[in-house]
Specification:
The protein is 32% helix and 27% strand. With 382 residues, the chain is α+β, with helices and mostly antiparallel strands. The protein folds into 2 domains: 3-167 and 291-378, 3-Layer(aba) Sandwich (Aminopeptidase); 169-288, Alpha-Beta Plaits (2-Layer Sandwich). The structure holds zinc ion (ZN).
C-alpha cells in the first residue's frame, strides 16, 4: 500500500476536538518506519502526552539554507462516516477521512524527502515537519517554531495545486447579555436577556454589513462576522436571566483581535446609551492572525516557477498566487519569521462525510516539491 493509504488507514482524530480521539501517535509511528526505510533521520518531540511531532531531516553535503515541508497529522472527527479509515480509490481519487486534509499533502512531502535523500542533496537542509493538533490549537506548529529555524516553508494544505500566499484569520468571542429572572406573569420584575441579545444580534448584523462594504483585500475579499451558537432561557414561563452568544469574526491581515473586540465593545456601548438598563459583556475566547507574504519573496517566486512547469500545468496564472478562505499553520510559521507559502493537492469534502484527494495531484505535488528542493536549496535552474 502507498504511504498515503497507510496514513489514511490509521485513526488520528484530534483528541482535543473530539473526546476520545485517537491522536497522532499511530500516524507518527507509520511515518517513522517510512523515513527509516528511506535512510532519513527523524526526531520525535512529545508535544502533549501521546501526541508527538515528527521532524525528518535530509542534510545536504554542504551547509546552506533550510527548507521546511510542513503537514499536520491530525484530522477532524468522523461522525456520520461508515468507514472513515478505509481508504477507497475510485475514479482517480482516494476517499477517506484525512485524504485531502491533509494526509495527501503530507505523503507528498515525505515522498519528496525520500526522493531527495535518494539522489543526494548537495547543499542545505530539507526538513519535513509532521505536526500535531492543527485542527484545534496548533500545539504542534507552535512547538516546532520554538525549536527550529528555517529560511522558508511550504505548508501542504490542499490548494488545488495553486500557490497560496495569504489567508484570513479568526477571532472567537462570546457576548453575554444579562436580564433578571421573574415569573412570566410579572413583566414589572422580569428583564428579558434574550430580547437584549436580539438587540445585540441586530447590531452585529449591521456591523457585518459595514464590514462587507469595506475595501476588499485583493486576494481575500472582505472580513465577516457571524453568530455561531446562542443559549438562553430556562422554560416557558420565566423571564430569561442570561443569554450567551458565541460568535466568529474572520479577519484580514493587519486586523488584530484587540481591534475586533474593541469594535464589539463600541457596539455594546451604543446599546447601553440607548437603554440605561441594558447589560452585556464580551469575552475573547481565541484568536488566530491572518497571514500574508509578499508575492516577490524568494520562496513564492521559486514555487510559482515550479508549479507553472509541473505536469498538468494550466499556465502560470492558474497556479496563483491566490488567497485561501481557511486558516492554516502558515500563520504560525510566518509569525515566527519563516517565510511560508501554502501549496498542495486537489481535493474536496474537507471536514465533511465524503472527503477525497485527487491521486494524480498528490504525485504532481510530490514532483513539484522535489524540484523545489533542488532549486531552492541547491540553486539548480531546471
Ligand atoms: Zn488541514
Amino acid at each position: 500500500m502507498s504511504l498515503l493509504a497507510d496514513l489514511v488507514a490509521i485513526d488520528s482524530v484530534n483528541p482535543s476536538l473530539v473526546a476520545g480521539g485517537a491522536g497522532e501517535a499511530g500516524v507518527v509511528g507509520c511515518l517513522e518506519a517510512f523515513f527509516r526505510k528511506a535512510g532519513i533521520d527523524t526526531v520525535r518531540d512529545e508535544v502533549a502526552p501521546g501526541r508527538p511531532n515528527l521532524v525528518a531531516v535530509v542534510e545536504g553535503r554542504r551547509p546552506g539554507p533550510t527548507l521546511v515541508y510542513c503537514g499536520h497529522t491530525d484530522t477532524v472527527g468522523v461522525e456520520g462516516m461508515a468507514q472513515p479509515f478505509v481508504p477507497v480509490p475510485r475514479d482517480g481519487r482516494l476517499y477517506g477521512r484525512g485524504t485531502g486534509d491533509m494526509k495527501g499533502g503530507l505523503a507528498a512531502a515525505c515522498g519528496a524527502a525520500a526522493r531527495t535523500a535518494g539522489r543526494g542533496l548537495a547543499r542545505g537542509r530539507l526538513v519535513v515537519a509532521a505536526v500535531v493538533d492543527e485542527e484545534f490549537a496548533s500545539l504542534g506548529a507552535e512547538a516546532f517554531v520554538r525549536e527550529w529555524r528555517a529560511d522558508a516553508a511550504v505548508v501542504l494544505e490542499p490548494t488545488d495545486l495553486r500557490v497560496a500566499i495569504a489567508h484570513k484569520g479568526f477571532v472567537l468571542a462570546e457576548i453575554l447579555t444579562t436580564g433578571r429572572a421573574a415569573h412570566g406573569s410579572r413583566p414589572d420584575e422580569g428583564r428579558d436577556a434574550i430580547f437584549r441579545m436580539g438587540r445585540v444580534l441586530a447590531a452585529l448584523e449591521q456591523h457585518g454589513r459595514a464590514l462587507e462594504a469595506g475595501t476588499p483585500h485583493p486576494r481575500l475579499g472582505v472580513p465577516s462576522v457571524h453568530a455561531s451558537t446562542v443559549h438562553g432561557g430556562r422554560e416557558w414561563s420565566t423571564y430569561p436571566a442570561r443569554c450567551l452568544l458565541q460568535l466568529e469574526r474572520r479577519t484580514l491581515p493587519g486586523e488584530t483581535a484587540d481591534a475586533v473586540m474593541a469594535a464589539f465593545e463600541r457596539l455594546l456601548a451604543v446599546l447601553r446609551s440607548d437603554d440605561g438598563e441594558f447589560e452585556a459583556e464580551t469575552r475573547l475566547v481565541m484568536a488566530r492572525a491572518a497571514y500574508e507574504i509578499d508575492e516577490r519573496a524568494e520562496i513564492v517566486q521559486a514555487l510559482l516557477g515550479v508549479a507553472a512547469g509541473s505536469a498538468g500545468a494550466r499556465g502560470r496564472d492558474a497556479h496563483g498566487p491566490v488567497g485561501l478562505t481557511f486558516w492554516t499553520d502558515a500563520a504560525i510559521l510566518g509569525g515566527a519569521g519563516i517565510p511560508s507559502v501554502i501549496f498542495g493537492p486537489v481535493g474536496g469534502g474537507y471536514h465533511s462525510t465524503e472527503e477525497w484527494v485527487d491521486l494524480g495531484s498528490v504525485e504532481t505535488t510530490e514532483a513539484a516539491l522535489v524540484t523545489l528542493a533542488g532549486r531552492y536549496l541547491e540553486g539548480e535552474t531546471a
